[in-house]
Amino acid sequence: MTTSPALTPSVASRGDEPDIACSELVRIFKTDAIEVQALQGLDLVVDRGELVAVVGASGSGKSTLLSILSGLDVPTAGVARVAGRDLLSMTRSERVTFRRECVGFVWQQTSRNLLPYLTAAENVAAALAIAGRTPKRERAARTAGLLDLLQVGYCADRRPAQMSGGEQQRVAIAVGIANEPRVLLADEPTGELDDETSAHVLEAMRSVNRELGVTTLIVTHDPAVSEHVARTVQIRDGRTATEVLRSTRHDEHGAEHHIAEEYAVLDRVGRLQLPDEFVTALDLRQRVRLALEPDHVGVWPGATADRPRGFGESRETRSRESARSDDRDILRTSDAAEAPGDRAEDAGDQAEDAASATEDAS
Q: Which of 6, 186, 209, 332 could be cross-linked to 141 through a Cys-Cys bond (beta carbons 3.0 to 4.6 Å apart)?
């Protein structure tokens, strides 16, 4: 797929700063009697041009994160920068400008993305008019180019009610990128679609990311989304827990292999979260034992009652203990070898003492 002349990549002339940078991000919601920590020191970096999926169960904090990144909510503490803007220091008017110029948004509910009384082309044109960045004479060409890029050019004259759910979401993506944002944020964009339609929408988002270079962050609880992105970040209990990086490699015979590698996320103070399946498989609770090996760190259950000797100890510790044990064995062997001579000498001394005592009595 080639880029329309009316469309230009949005990553040109940028510096090296990531498009999304969060550090120790905290969001606390308070009521009269309840305090809920939705984000508890979350760290996240998304480089320019990346396509990233953020996954997590309900209540993990992913929707709160998206609200902050889009400028709809303000974090309680930490650092949050999107498209070079500091989200904590912006005024209300600056937030409006930020949402209009820097980010695009695609909601899960198709009814929130499109105006029902406008056609697909009119919805895109309205976004262009509001942003005010595209000259009026160029709007028609850009509108057509965006719809063609999303492969819904044939829907230009249709209203949302005349389109399928997948077509509505692809038009919504066109609306989201109409203002040439640096970042496109999507909240469960396939949540109301079937599997086949979801795949088409995700491939459309990949096309936008690839052709225009728009940094794209997809928030979802659908694990199938992960198959369409190179990087998946999992959020658990308000923190980034793990990342899965996907790549394609070729062996010596030219065969293509798709590789997925999972990593635990280590924060600035050395904290990490073990995957749930690891914790369950080893029945890890409360405290665990750690061992520093030359090339890795070992983790074992904390209970020690039935722990075999050397369990959870580093190689150096085991070597030292082994050497000490060998020394003790040598000493015990030496003592055992010398014991008969010592007993004979003691018996002779006792005999001499008895003889002396007899002579004195005489």
A: 6
| Percentage of the chain modeled with pLDDT above 90 | 41
Question: Tokens 């939705």, residue?
Answer: 38
Tell which residue, 45, 345, 48, 362, has the closest CA to residue 212: 48
Q: Give, in order, the Cα–Cα distances in Å from 287 to each of 113, 293, 299.
A: 48, 19, 10
**CA torsion angle for 319, 323, 326, 328 (degrees, to 10)?**
-130
Residue 167: name the closest of 223, 215, 118, 110 by CA: 110
> From CA 97, how far away is CA 83, in angstroms rounded?
12
Task: Report pLDDT digits (tens) over 190-205.
Answer: 888 888 888 888 989 9
The one-letter amino acid at 197: T
Reading phi first (left if > 0) and then psi (alpha if -120 to 50, else beta), residue 215 is in beta
Q: Mark 230-246 as b/e (b = at least 16 C-beta within 10 Å).
A: bbbbbbbbbbbbbbbee
User: What tens digit of pLDDT does each residue of 144-188 get?
Assistant: 999 999 999 999 999 999 999 999 999 999 999 998 999 999 998
Q: What is the pLDDT of residues 53-74, one digit of tens each?
A: 999 888 888 889 999 999 999 9
